[in-house]
Amino acid sequence: PYTASRLAGNVEKEYLAILCGCPQQRLGTVDAPIRRVDPVHILREVSPEGQPAITHYEIVAEGDGYSLARLWLETGRTHQIRAQMAAAGWPLLGDGKYGKLDKQYDRKIQALYSYKLTFQFTTDAGGLAYLNGKTFQVSDVSFVSEYFS
Q: What whole-number distance in Å separates Cα of residue 130 and Cα of residue 137?
């Protein structure tokens, strides 16, 4: 239903993430501006004074209070997914900065992974033209099988 995010009009990226909590809508959009709070610690927050930030999501699995989500960005703000999901009430599992750590699984890093890239050049790509239209996808994201077997 959504197209993947485009980085400089050349690369579409899709992400997988485990959210703490389960959004009521299985398919949705978070449209919440993000602003810099602390440039030293690279901390962002959702705020009306922030820059536009739009994230689309699809919940592909649920269980034990967690959701497995596919995500696409319309914008590419620093920490966009992490800040928006936390503000919406579904922080990323293992995200100590915006979410919570999971002591049960001893997860100390965020469950967020850019698992799929598709090259879609809209201008002359020069020596990279052979990549146009090609998709590269990781076959196994470890945290998915760890939480959703």
A: 17
